[in-house]
Design a protein that fits this description.
GO molecular function, one term: ubiquitin protein ligase activity
CATH architecture of the largest domain: Sandwich
CATH class of the largest domain: Mainly Beta
CATH topology of the largest domain: Jelly Rolls
Oligomer: single chain
Coiled coil: 288-344
Strand content: 15-25%
Structural class: alpha+beta
Family: Belongs to the TRIM/RBCC family.
Shape: flat
Keywords: Cell projection, Coiled coil, Cytoplasm, Cytoplasmic vesicle, Cytoskeleton, Metal-binding, Phosphoprotein, Repeat, Synapse, Transferase, Ubl conjugation, Ubl conjugation pathway, Zinc, Zinc-finger
Number of helices: 10
Domain B30.2/SPRY: 517-702
């Protein structure tokens, strides 16, 4: 129960409450302490003047905080009643628990009356030392505040439960051991305080003083004090006003003070509020239990942090030692290269020295020989060898020509060690997750009611769990290939909804999502299974059509404003499965030759379909048809179209072929084989033709049966 002791101490005197009263702000004060912090206000602020002006609506008038300055902004220890020039500033004191309080402006007159009975200065106000709300007292003074009998009882039980010796309740600093207790005052005294505060004379002479232990027992055995009405001191509380949230007596009701208020029996409201407090305590108890478990977790974290620190330091030392070892090995390799370069330079220079020495010896010998020959006086003999000697001299001179007397090797080493990247890396060497103290986001939740498929598109929506406190920087949406293969990322961003287009028709996809932030990524959400449509519903795409194309009927009917052929594509592309659609000829004038088929997205839009290598088509007039791709015409077939005719296009990407039909009959052989990739339905026409598109059709029965036989 020691944790409760602060709840039982007065914020002014710092001791256990003595005769506590309840302020309108729900805080408590000792009655004596409340009297000590009263401040007298000017006459104009009295409750009588307020009520005379018609502004008073309650028994207590809170002061305008702009008119009352109880605390210095500079926290200098002084406060002033700053709203009135006549009010002197008064030094501010501090209670034992640090709350600033104001002493009375004038010391109270000596009296032996209890604080409740002593007169209160006229026009007094009191400021709660805890919430700092100020109010002006009415004529009742401190008697207008209800006494907190429950708090008194709790303090009695708490003090009785303490095994330590009873202390004096009037000692200002270190309480001394009590020697007596006054049964009438209900106060424990030490000898000095008894002589000073409870002299055995006057009315106090009749008080009965007993030993502290006996006083404790008498306190325990004394009956509970009955709470009486603050307005009618002889009446006990019997009812409870719900609007005023206070107990009232029968006489209060008789006087009509609560006539328009809801009033209930005191006992029933007592039980109800006890039940509400118990329920509130259950929640608070759960929080306290969680707090205790959290403290245990924190203490365990201290031990774990110490262990992890030792382990991490060892790992760091090992990593740095590994870097030093790698640097030493690299140092040895570089030194070996320097030594190799050194030996190579020496060898080249020494070889050149040896070669030059031999050649110089030969040149010197030839020179000496020629000088001796010149000394001979035999002309005929000289002329016999002079030509040969002259040639040898010139040849030897040429051998000492350009480059011979140039060193083949420099003394400088052409090696330069660039250590700046390594030094920069060393300076940037840091812990990758040194700032990653926050946890990863929680696992996102797929919102099934908002996830759907349409044709070959899938829309997925997700959200963070309701109780998640870790923000996510973004999300990663993954889908498999529709055939049970590996997942791949299809969206990365901050949005919580994404539509994925271009999926395969009649395929089953698995989808999942995860969140990420700077710390890392969350676990994956639950996997959602999506089924795309078996057949395709689509219309023509006005965005990719030629500007001469005219669309109507929700982009299902198409014609053209030009006499030249223009191309329009469907909105949906196909890359897998078997797909069939039809076009009815609404208008056919002057025997034009429209073309029907499939194309890539970048097909040419200003020529007939099939003129380039991006389209595969059948063009047809009123008598015959041809297949065309990359301007190559093949398979002329009899039979054409008129107004009301139906042209069918069957794209079988499972078997990689394209087939055409006119009025439910196959037109020619299979038009094209080995068609692979992404294809869009396509039509080319001029102003003499108008057709309407029909989609969502099943594959013709005869083709399905033929495919099953094959």
């Amino acid at each position: 129960m020691e944790e409760m002791e602060e709840e039982l101490k007065c914020p002014v005197c710092g001791s256990f409450y003595r005769e506590p009263i309840i302020l309108p702000c729900s805080h408590n004060l000792c009655q004596a302490c409340a009297r000590n912090i009263l401040v007298q206000t000017p006459e104009s602020e009295s409750p009588q003047s307020h009520r005379a002006a018609g502004s008073g609506v309650s028994d207590y008038d809170y002061l305008d905080l702009d008119k009352m300055s109880l605390y210095s902004e500079a926290d200098s220890g002084y406060g002033s009643y700053g709203g009135f020039a006549s009010a002197p500033t008064t030094p501010c004191q501090k209670s034992p628990n640090g709350v600033r309080v104001f002493p009375p402006a004038m010391p109270p007159p000596a009296t032996h009356l209890s604080p409740a009975l002593a007169p209160v200065p006229r026009n007094s106000c009191i400021t709660c030392p805890q919430c700092h709300r100020s109010l002006i007292l009415d004529d009742r003074g401190l008697r207008g505040f209800p006494k907190n009998r429950v708090l008194e009882g709790v303090i009695d039980r708490y003090q009785q439960s303490k095994a330590a010796a009873l202390k004096c309740q009037l000692c200002e600093k270190a309480p001394k051991e009590a020697t007596v207790m006054c049964e009438q005052c209900d106060v424990f005294y030490c000898d000095p305080c008894r002589l000073r505060c409870h002299p055995p004379r006057g009315p106090l002479a009749k008080h009965r003083l007993v030993p502290p232990a006996q006083g404790r027992v008498s306190r325990r055995l004394s009956p509970r004090k009955v709470s009486t009405c603050t307005d009618h001191e002889l009446e006990n509380h019997s009812m409870y006003c719900v609007q005023c949230k206070m107990p009232v007596c029968y006489q209060c009701l008789e006087e009509g003070k609560h006539s328009s208020h809801e009033v209930k029996a005191l006992g029933a409201m007592w039980k109800l509020h006890k039940s509400q407090l118990s329920q509130a305590l259950n929640g608070l108890s759960d929080r306290a239990k969680e707090a205790k478990e959290f403290l245990v977790q924190l203490r365990n974290m201290v031990q774990q942090i110490q262990e992890n620190s030792v382990e991490f330091e060892a790992c760091l030392v090992a990593q740095c030692d590994a870097l030093i070892d790698a640097l030493n090995r690299r140092k040895a390799q570089l030194l070996a290269r320097v030594n190799k370069e050194h030996e190579h330079k020496l060898k080249v220079v020494r070889d050149q020295i040896s070669h030059c020495t031999v050649k110089l010896r030969q040149t010197t010998g030839l020179m000496e020989y020629c000088l001796e020959v010149i000394k001979e006086n035999d002309p005929s003999g000289f002329l016999q060898i002079s030509d040969a000697l002259i040639r040898r001299v010139h040849l030897t001179e040429d051998q000492w020509g350009k480059g011979t007397l140039t060193p083949r090797m420099t003394t400088d080493f052409d090696l330069s060690l660039d250590n700046s990247p390594l030094l920069q890396s060393i300076h940037q060497l840091d812990f990758v997750q040194v700032k990653a103290s926050s946890p990863v986001p929680a696992t996102p939740i797929l919102q099934l009611e908002e996830c759907c498929t349409h044709n070959n598109s899938a829309t997925l929506s997700w959200k963070q769990p309701p109780l998640s406190t870790v923000p996510a920087d973004g999300y990663i949406l993954e889908l498999d290939d529709g055939n049970g293969g590996q997942f791949r990322e299809v969206y990365v961003g901050k949005e919580t909804m994404c539509t994925v287009d271009g999926l395969h028709f009649n395929s089953t996809y698995n989808a999942r999502v995860k969140a990420f932030n700077k710390t890392g990524v969350s676990p994956y959400s639950k996997t959602l299974v999506l089924q795309t449509s078996e057949v395709a519903w689509f219309a023509f795409d006005p965005g990719s059509a030629h500007s001469d194309i005219i669309l109507s009927n929700d982009n299902l009917t198409v014609t053209c404003s030009s006499y030249d052929d223009r191309v329009v594509l469907g909105k949906t592309g196909f890359s897998k499965g078997v797909h069939y659609w039809e076009l009815t000829v609404d208008r056919y004038d002057n025997h034009p030759d429209p073309a029907f088929g499939v194309a890539r997205m970048d097909v040419m839009k200003d020529v007939m379909l099939g003129k380039d290598d991006k389209a595969w088509a059948m063009y047809v007039d009123n008598n015959r048809s041809w297949f065309m791709h990359n301007n190559s015409h093949t398979n002329r077939t009899e039979g054409g179209i008129t107004k009301g005719a139906t042209v069918g296009v069957l794209l079988d990407l499972n078997r990689k072929n394209l087939t055409f039909f006119i009025n439910d009959e196959q037109q020619g052989p299979i038009a094209f084989d080995n068609v692979e990739g992404l294809f869009f339905p396509a039509v080319s026409l001029n102003r003499n033709v108008q057709v309407t598109l029909h989609t969502g059709l099943p594959v013709p029965d005869f083709y399905s049966s033929r495919a099953s036989i094959a």
